Amino acid sequence: MSTRNDGRSPSEPRAVTIERGFARRSNGSALYRCGGTTLLVTANLTEAVPGWLEGKGTGWLTAEYMMLPGSTSPRKERRADSRSTEIQRLIGRSLRAAVDTRALGPRTLHLDAEVIDADGGTRTAAITGAFVAVVDALLATLGPDATRTVLKDSVSAVSVGIVNGQGLLDLDYVEDVGAEVDLNVVRLGGGGLVEVQGTGEGGTFSRNQLTELLDLAELGLDLLTKAQREALGADWPF
Amino acid sequence: MSTRNDGRSPSEPRAVTIERGFARRSNGSALYRCGGTTLLVTANLTEAVPGWLEGKGTGWLTAEYMMLPGSTSPRKERRADSRSTEIQRLIGRSLRAAVDTRALGPRTLHLDAEVIDADGGTRTAAITGAFVAVVDALLATLGPDATRTVLKDSVSAVSVGIVNGQGLLDLDYVEDVGAEVDLNVVRLGGGGLVEVQGTGEGGTFSRNQLTELLDLAELGLDLLTKAQREALGADWPF
Amino acid sequence: MSTRNDGRSPSEPRAVTIERGFARRSNGSALYRCGGTTLLVTANLTEAVPGWLEGKGTGWLTAEYMMLPGSTSPRKERRADSRSTEIQRLIGRSLRAAVDTRALGPRTLHLDAEVIDADGGTRTAAITGAFVAVVDALLATLGPDATRTVLKDSVSAVSVGIVNGQGLLDLDYVEDVGAEVDLNVVRLGGGGLVEVQGTGEGGTFSRNQLTELLDLAELGLDLLTKAQREALGADWPF
Amino acid sequence: MSTRNDGRSPSEPRAVTIERGFARRSNGSALYRCGGTTLLVTANLTEAVPGWLEGKGTGWLTAEYMMLPGSTSPRKERRADSRSTEIQRLIGRSLRAAVDTRALGPRTLHLDAEVIDADGGTRTAAITGAFVAVVDALLATLGPDATRTVLKDSVSAVSVGIVNGQGLLDLDYVEDVGAEVDLNVVRLGGGGLVEVQGTGEGGTFSRNQLTELLDLAELGLDLLTKAQREALGADWPF
Amino acid sequence: MSTRNDGRSPSEPRAVTIERGFARRSNGSALYRCGGTTLLVTANLTEAVPGWLEGKGTGWLTAEYMMLPGSTSPRKERRADSRSTEIQRLIGRSLRAAVDTRALGPRTLHLDAEVIDADGGTRTAAITGAFVAVVDALLATLGPDATRTVLKDSVSAVSVGIVNGQGLLDLDYVEDVGAEVDLNVVRLGGGGLVEVQGTGEGGTFSRNQLTELLDLAELGLDLLTKAQREALGADWPF
Amino acid sequence: MSTRNDGRSPSEPRAVTIERGFARRSNGSALYRCGGTTLLVTANLTEAVPGWLEGKGTGWLTAEYMMLPGSTSPRKERRADSRSTEIQRLIGRSLRAAVDTRALGPRTLHLDAEVIDADGGTRTAAITGAFVAVVDALLATLGPDATRTVLKDSVSAVSVGIVNGQGLLDLDYVEDVGAEVDLNVVRLGGGGLVEVQGTGEGGTFSRNQLTELLDLAELGLDLLTKAQREALGADWPF
Description:
6 copies of one chain form a homohexamer.
Chain A (H helix, E strand, L loop, with lengths): L15 E5 L7 E7 L2 E10 L13 E8 L14 H15 L4 H4 L3 E10 L4 H29 L4 E9 L2 E4 L3 H6 L2 E8 L4 E8 L6 H26 L6
Helix pairs in contact in A: 1-3, 3-5
């Protein structure tokens, strides 16, 4: 069986590093690297909620996702496009699955994922990195007790796909472009699935292939949860 | 076991009617009703492709999705929002799975899904109805032979979910709001999966629940494919 | 004298059908067909007024007009253009002539005219159909007594024009494009003129021609008022 | 019979002055004053046509209308609103009635009407002043022979209305706000009507009232045509 | 030494005329001409402040700058561009240096500079003219005593530059385009510098050149302050 | 004499670090830190020029400047504002002073300055960092010979100001907010001034103060040029 273009085996994810506190003015932040992909995720808490939640006592979490112009080659125009819109909705839903917005009180957690280098898997990297930034933002603003109350679980995400008929974990950009099937999976640390988004890119897939891809994704998610735990060390809130 | 608020059993979809040619100036169109949900889908072919496809000989299919202001109560402001953006990307990907854009030649198929009454399942209804409009648009512009060449298969979509711990087929609006898990499945007539989008709404789901929901969805998709075939009658292109 | 391309005599309008309640979630709605022209008009009442009317005790009526992308051949881009702006201002002014906004109280009636098939006369069709939707919206929300208080009269509109020197009632698209003069007339059921908008399209017109066209328009407006009355039946509020 | 708030009789228009060449960098321009209303209209010819006219050999005339922020009290926000859109469409149609766009060749005449002081009648003032600016722009760029070929006739516009039951010529702002009926009339110098736009503001009007108002308007238009002719002197192109 | 294209000596500014009250509906206004450059500046006071100043008891002064489409040849599109943004920020800062916004109370002074003819130096002309409009606006709304309290000093601005190695005062458009260095200086009547903006256009400049240009600018600013004082006559507030 | 809040002497700048190649997909990039201020500047070359330069054989350099939402506390909304517009124009002009756009050929250098942490001096940091990114982008795309041809000199920028009557070099955020005078100076490595922008913030300044501030700025610019040279090492192109 042929290896991948960077020498990885099919079920081998790229190396992940998480640098906490990279943006010092934000309540929490993480510089997240996964192979050639680099993102800065910042988390900031504000004492207000969107209009439709006012007076309801509950909080909110919202996310923005931006590919910086220099993150691709050739340079990408700086503007919101429909893909970004789809992705930031996914990030928001995913993190809300880990946060008890009622326990947050009438506050909003703002996540901003800035893609510095785009080499595949930016949307799942944004989710995995955002969790670390959220923990730090809650610790810095509400303290450790409230952080434990507000957070229900950790959350991470990974992409898997079928390339040339072979299931692969953690696709890089070249693999992603050539994939027949692409599946993003978001899961809580405790194992509950949050999002499963599978797409046949120009082709279709079977129930059996879906099962194979989910198995591969869960493998990667175990490792990502471990990376989050190591990055947070004694600040791991559970 | 309790029945649903409109008396359906858990695995019973809502009645579907498809009225072809409702918008007479479009190349193809369908007024699609599914219970209390009504959409108009129009399909039009233009002799041009987006800039990034020019000179490549291949065609394109793109979709817009709009909730008309009168489709909800209270009235909805007329503007593109992030949910619409996410949905029209899904519609476009789904229909492209059934269309050989290379065989289409340098043309663009424009789909417009206008929601007239929103009672749950509008995004999947848009996909199922769009297929009928596409067939009629291709027949009217390229004729039956080319239609058979351009179309690889039929495509339909359905939503399923878990409400109060119970898997339900084809959620209406009230069920959708109360669902713990929401799954949209897009499938070709031949059985290949095109999109699987599962979301834990405020909760999570297990691999077993995903399997149960996929089984339920496939049941509904068989019936929707049948409804498409009946609506098209002798014009069914396969 | 030659007949028109659809066989009508110069003073013969196209057949009109009005289907009430087509959009079930709106307070009132009408699917309005006039020959090859089809519009959906919805009417919805909200318990708020624009900022500049706040605290004045009076209500407001506002209209939006949209040609759906599939309503023309070739497909029309989905965006507000200056023609739509002009038309929705006309619809708003025309319906406000029939409504006592002071009696409405601090509420806003929102009209949305969605053009499904554009074959000429869409702006006048929108006005005539809107009146039926408004009656139903008021009945559904405020009841029959308040409806009679709020409505001062019925209102309808028609287009007339001069084509090849001949005055014609109710122009279809082909006639409209070829018209030397185009006149839209809005009138209350009781006979008072609300709007008279005559335009020489590439030519000019005389006072005598204006008189001839107004006579023709009034003929059509009598029939449209009758069609509105028949559609509303026992719900006719005067 | 009571006189008007500025002492005019009902059929007496406000004094008009037209200063040619006020904006020296434009091909043609006019500072147009009518009582308390002041506009600057500039006319500029460019060697290009809108995309939909390319290759057809014919030209175009287009207009923009802007109330400068300082033209009203209190100050008006600087932005295009729906009223401006409606007005600039009227200005464009009106001037195109006087211009042979085919004889213009593949060029565009851009009119810009900037309202410096708004005291009623700005849309009709813009039309009357624009004609003078157009003549000067054509003379400066194409010369007197081509100007005579391109211009079919002069064009002017006036507003009339019914205030407290009395027909009045050339309404100022206070009269306009209180008018029961408002009628704008655009006419060529030779007498052909170009636009007739009558609106019942909160009320309606009869055929007889329309006739009375048209008579009054034609009186004013005779005087405006005379003012244009005097302003242009030897440059009057007919 | 060669004279300039309009015959001026290097240290000779263009003639300035200031016509007060040109826009009669504004609280204050000035038609400012400087050689071939003409601007209308209006000043209006509103009883409100921007959101971020609410409840702080202090006022604000803000400016907009617009090149009217007819002010250049060829015609300029009507839209805010980045140059306008930069200029209106400069105008606002400059006039705020002359105004005690605390003494103004919770009000906003809106300045609108409309360029009618652009022949160089429009941003500095806008500042010099704006001061006259501001005095008239304060006199008209708050009276002479408050005007003296609110205004700390007069303010004027001038552009200087180096063209072909020669320092020139008050550049016209042709000189501005050919300048190696361009310097705008804003100064209070009392001599305090408010803004110094020097730019090497395609080249650089030395400290000595900067000194020479500042000397030249101060010469021009003395004359402009004198022109403001003459225009205001007995209304000069200091 | 009291020291500054971070213990610096008045003429002591903050420590600068420049990390080249931080964004790996860009042609050139620099992570620039100056005390608590951090920016990422990317530089990318495209084989096209803006429309107004097409066919002229010359190139262009353009800049965008963005404060990322997480760069301030509280979080800043993600949108272009007028301050950003002013700053990106300054960055563009400054870098164009160091680049021979004619030698660049028909290409555009795109600079993107992303502010990660905003602690004062971000606009000058963007200029100083951008030069390093530009060198790397030119080396990576055109090679060392062309880089030497295209670059005329290095360029750097610094802010100085007067706080409590004392001239200070390299203001941090707290100092900037309290400054009476703020001066940004852009200078080529060879000593030629490119931009001098002095602003009296709520006050004014004298010619002597301007001289004192320029002396202070030149001190800082010598050090910044040295830092650029050290960061580039053997790649220093002059």
